[in-house]
Amino acid sequence: MSAAPTLWNITRRSLAKDLRLEWRSKDAINSMLFFALLVVVIFSFGFDPTAEESRRIAGGLLWVAVLFATVVALNQTWTRELRNQVLDAYRLSPAPPQALFLSKTIGNFLFVAILEVLMVPLFVVFYNLRSVGPVWQLLVVAALATWALVVNGTFFAALSIRTRSREIMLPLILFPISIPALLAMVDATTSILTGDNSPFFWMRLLAVYDVVFTAVSLLLFEPVLNAE
Amino acid sequence: MDPSVTNTVAAQPAVELHDVARHFGRFAALRGITADFACGRLHVLLGENGAGKSTLLRVMAGLLAATRGTVRVLGAGVQREVATRFGYMGHAPLLYDELSAMENLEYFAALYGIHDDARCAEAIRMVGLDPALERRVGQYSQGMRQRISLARAIVHQPELLFLDEPFSNVDVGSARQMTTLLADMRDAGTTIFVVTHQAALMESVADECMVLEAGRMVAREKGIPSRMLSPYAMEARR
Question: What are the chain B neighbours of A86 within 8 Å (beta carbons)?
Answer without folding.
Answer: 94-96
